[in-house]
Design a protein that fits this description.
- The protein is an alpha/beta fold.
- The chain has a single domain, classed as Rossmann fold, CATH 3.40.50.720.
- It has a seven-stranded parallel sheet, sandwiched between helices.
- Strand 2, helix 2 and strand 3 form a beta-alpha-beta unit.
- The longest helix is centred in the middle third of the chain and has 29 residues.
- The radius of gyration is 17 Å and the shape is globular.
């Protein structure tokens, strides 16, 4: 039955940035489909842990800053020590720094590019090596953005990084599909998260944004659950190097 292809029973997923927002919702969604979660976060993730354990799944927190030395290896080691296998990686963690391009600092540029792009690549590499050791493939899901397709304003490094995420998704899919590793992405639209709080509180910008979204509302983190489960499951076994937009129709406008 086709619905069985969406089940994640017995799978183990690493989810970065699992303590809040999109990462939290994705982690819970994967657990709802049957997966155990190795969550990565700099801060406490008690809320995520309790939600996942209430589903009868296991949750293990790997608490570190992704920019710490040797973080990718330590994340894989932590997940393996807790669960003995890794089947899914969700590269969700990311940051944004806003400023006019004429005033953008090198410090902000490096912080965004290192977090959103460099860490994503090397964690994917480390997890893929573990997939190969296990000998049965795996799933990698990168969180891209509408800014993987558009320019935006006042977020130069974020746009560059998310454009890079789409490129990395494609090249890794090209290289790793032969190993049974699916590398794909989700491109969220305007979502109700901490990153967009200032925009939602700006009456003028909020109205401008809503007027462009065909669905007529901001997205909620829970809106990503379905796409994440699909890309993490056997239902997407022949999907490689693609980005699913979950944006209320923004890119179609």
């Amino acid at each position: 039955m086709v619905l069985d292809d969406f089940k994640l029973d017995g799978k183990v997923a690493i989810v970065t940035g699992c303590n809040t927002g999109l990462g939290q919702a994705i982690a819970i969604g994967l657990a709802e489909a049957g997966a155990h979660i190795a969550g990565v976060a700099r801060r406490d993730a008690t809320e995520t842990k309790e939600a996942i354990q209430a589903l009868g799944r296991q949750f293990h927190l790997i608490r570190l800053d992704l920019l710490e030395p040797d973080a990718p290896r330590r994340i894989v080691q932590g997940a393996m020590e807790a669960f003995g296998q890794i089947d899914i990686l969700v590269n969700n963690a990311g940051i944004i720094r806003r400023n006019d391009a004429l005033e953008y600092t090198e410090e902000d540029w490096d912080a965004v590019m290192n977090t959103n792009l460099k860490v994503l690549f090397f964690l994917s590499q480390e997890v893929a090596k573990q997939f190969l050791r296990q000998g049965r493939g795996g799933k990698i899901i990168n969180i891209a953005s509408m800014l993987s397709f558009q320019g935006g304003i006042r977020i130069a490094a974020y746009t560059a990084s998310k454009s890079g995420v789409l490129g990395i998704t494609r090249i890794l899919a090209n290289e790793w599909a032969k190993y049974g590793i699916n590398v794909n992405a989700i491109a969220p639209g305007y979502m109700e998260t901490n990153n967009t709080l200032a925009l939602r509180q700006d009456e003028k910008r909020n109205a401008e944004i809503l007027s462009r979204i065909p669905a007529g509302r901001w997205g909620k983190p829970e809106d990503l659950k379905g796409a994440a489960v699909f890309l993490a499951s056997a239902a997407s076994n022949y999907v490689h190097g693609y980005a699913i937009a979950v944006d209320g129709g923004w890119l179609a406008r």
